[in-house]
Amino acid sequence: MAEPTIITVAITGSVPRKKDNPAVPVEPEEQIESTQRAFEAGAALAHIHVRDKDENPSSDPGRFLRVKEGVMKHCPGMIIQFSTGGRGRAGAERWQPLLHDPDMASLTTGSVNFPASIYENTPQLIEEMAKVMLERDIKPEIEVFDLAMLYNAHNMAEKGLLRRPIHCQFVMGIPNALPAREKTLDFLISELRELEPDATWAAMGISRWQIVVNEWCLKRGGHLRTGLEDNIYRAKGVLATGNADLVRLAADLCAKYGRRPATPAEARMILKLRPAT
Question: What integer pLDDT is reported at residue 55 of this predicted model?
Answer without folding.
Answer: 82
